[in-house]
Structure formats: structure tokens, C-alpha cells
Amino acid sequence: MNFQRGHSKEDLEINLIPMIDVLLVILIFLMITTTYSKFAELQINLPTADVEKQLERPNEINIIVTPDGRYLINRVPHDFRTIEDLAMAMKGAAGEQKDPVVVINADAKATHQSVIHVMEAARFAGLAHISFATQTTTR
Q: What is the pTM of this model?
């Protein structure tokens, strides 16, 4: 028996507002908990050790780091007080060369900080291509 003859049935509908509220809360949560980090970094081309000796290229700047922390640029010793002085000397050694490659020849007993000083000076000088010299072991 139908006692509601004059009343029409309401159309069923899906209410999207609660779903949108939940999605916004999830979005806000993700935005707050996400960490954004920007690291200053240098591009480093790690060398591979070959048996054959590589020929010297004309656009290389050879930096030698001795065990006692002295620096030689293209086999000429230099004394530096600051990283900026080292950067200026590297820029002078580069001269008008196009995209010179900084080759770091660090002694095995040289401190890690000495090598980092060379890398930082290369960044200050605007020299983006850095390579490390390796030595093959004889068996």
C-alpha cells in the first residue's frame, strides 16, 4: 500500500563536497610535510683508470695538491691565503681557453679539505669541468 500518493520521490544524488574536503586536507598535509632542499653542487666527471697514458689536452689546468697542502698550478708552485686567491690564479691559468678542464692531481696523503679547496676555487672561477687524475696499480 502506498500512503504517499501525492508525494514524488526525490532523485538520488552523490554529494561530492565531503570528498573534496578530504582531498584538500590530504593536499595540505602533503604540502606541509614535504621538504624542499636545494644543494649547491659541482659537476664532477669521475675518471677511469686506463693502462695507456692519456695525452695532455691543451685546454687542461693541472692542479697538484701535495701531502703538506701546497698547490701547484701547471707545475708552478703558488702560495695562497684564501680560496679566492686560488680561484684568481686558476682563472689566470685558464686565460682565454674555451671550457678548460681542471684536472686535480692529489697525493694519496693530501687532506680531503685541500681537494675541496680546489673544487671550491674552481666554482668561484667559473670552471665547471673538473676531473681527477688516477694512477694505475702494477700487479
A: 0.56
